[in-house]
Amino acid sequence: MAQVAKGSVFPGWFLAGAGGLMALALVSAGIGRYQKSVNGPAPMPPVIAEVSIRFDGQQDGSMLIRRLPDDRVIEHLPTDGSGFMRGIHRSLNRDRAMRQLDPAAPYLLVRRTNGRQAVIDPLSGERIELDGFGPSHSQHVGRLIDQGQSQTGLSTPSMTKNQN
């Protein structure tokens, strides 16, 4: 008959150290969460450029991005491939559908003083920060903002700036 080995594979000091490390991690996470709830989220930098846009689906499956209020086309999205802006549109449109909001209402493309850009849905308050998707996608939206503003000659946004 085989004998059962007595004792642990790990020495006691090792288990105590691992337990202490886990306790320290939990306490640190709790303190961080508490600080975030007390201080609130960091304020967003002021908007320095914005363009109000609308996505316009075509019969051939392509999509036009139109600048409002004059409905001037600033980008044509062909039918081939899914495309980044099509994905952004699908995501925001799905959110509007779930909330039963007007799917034809405009969206905002914004650039902030720190250079970051976002697509904002003014109806639902949803915001997609674009810098996490990589520089090429952020540059694409930057070109849309520049193109939308250059066609109107705008130099300042119509949205009020946050002066914090």
Account of the 3D structure:
The protein is an alpha+beta fold and 164 residues long. It folds into 2 domains: 14-41; 47-150, no CATH class. It is 37% helix and 21% strand. It has 3 helices and 6 strands, in the order αβββαβββα. It has helices at 12-39, 84-99, 135-150, and strands at residues 47-57, 63-67, 72-77, 107-112, 117-120, 127-129. The longest helix has 28 residues, at 12-39. The termini are far apart.
* Overall geometry: elongated
Order of helices and strands: HEEEHEEEH
Largest sheet: 6 strands, antiparallel
According to DSSP, the number of beta strands is 6
How many helices? The count is 3
How are the strands of the biggest sheet laid out side by side?
3-2-1-4-5-6
Oligomer: single chain
Supply the number of structural domains. 2
Spell out the key features of this protein.
164 residues; alpha+beta; six-stranded antiparallel sheet; 3 helices; 6 strands; 37% helix; disordered C terminus
Topology:
Layout: H1 12-39, E1 47-57, E2 63-67, E3 72-77, H2 84-99, E4 107-112, E5 117-120, E6 127-129, H3 135-150
Antiparallel strand pairs: 1-2, 1-4, 2-3, 4-5, 5-6
What does this entry show, briefly?
With 164 residues, this protein is α+β, with helices and mostly antiparallel strands.
